[in-house]
Amino acid sequence: MADALDKLLSPFRAAVDRYEMIKPGDHIAVGLSGGKDSVALLVLLHRLQRFYPAEFKITAITADPCFGGRETDYSPVTALCEQLGIQHVVRRTRLGEIVFEELKESNPCSLCARMRRGILHKMAQELGCNSVALGHHKNDAAETLLMNLFSGGRIGCFAPVTELTRRELKLIRPLIFIDENKIASAAARCGLPIVKSGCPVDGHTHRQYIGDLIDELSKQYGSLNDRLVGALQKGNISGW
């Protein structure tokens, strides 16, 4: 019997197919933070692997920021990886210390994300992966579009597929057609293990503010997440 995650496979595969995210022989490193999005991404990729016409491998990689100087306990998601037969590699880092204590960054999310991506890219290369899967969903795309417009005065977003030619890696985002609330609901109903973020600003970021703004405006105008992502596609913006 299909469960709540199986019901997300159709939009998941639609994104993979539309943007040709997976090619035969790909070795995909899944950026596994332990949050609901990355865990759902891992499980959906594993389920897709069972019937997708292009064969591919999966490895899960985690860069622990060690917020507050403490190592994060990833054992629940490591156990899930073992259950799925997927290797899980965890690397401890000084990200939390560098961003919040040494640099005291005024915009910590942007710097932390860039540094974490760099670590994940290096890990993927060392493990022989040619692709990195990230857990960005439809809400993230809509929020990024507005953040770029409001803060930088430009119209743009992350791309569904990004080629990092110097690293010989590509970044893929298979969740981009799925709403965050559907991911959260499916993860809860299927009992997926979630590792809570230890970030000091978790839930109090500019992205959270933009997300709340979109939710509020959607009450009057309908789903703005759908419309904003549709605008990216119609305008062929940032590879959409």
Description:
The protein is α/β, with parallel strands linked by helices. It has one domain (6-239): HUPs (Rossmann fold, 3-Layer(aba) Sandwich). 47% of the residues lie in helices and 13% in strands. It is built from nine helices and six strands, in the order H-E-H-E-H-E-H-H-E-H-E-E-H-H-H. It has helices spanning 9-18, 36-49, 75-84, 95-102, 108-126, 138-152, 180-189, 206-221, 224-234; strands spanning 26-31, 56-64, 87-92, 131-133, 161-164, 169-172. Strands 3-2-1-4-6-5 form a six-stranded mixed beta sheet, sandwiched between helices. Helix 2 packs across helix 7, helix 4 (95-102) runs antiparallel to helix 5 (108-126) and helix 6 (138-152) packs across helix 9 (224-234). The longest helix is centred in the middle third of the chain and has 19 residues, at 108-126. The protein is globular. It starts with 8 loop residues before the first helix and ends in a 6-residue tail after the last helix. The model has no long low-confidence stretch (mean pLDDT 94).
Global outline: globular
Top-tier CATH class: Alpha Beta
- Provide a count of the helices: 9
Radius of gyration: 17 Å
Structure summarized in a few sentences:
With 240 residues, this protein is α/β, with parallel strands linked by helices. It has nine helices and six strands, in the order αβαβαβααβαββααα. Helix 2 (36-49) packs across helix 7 and helix 6 (138-152) packs across helix 8.
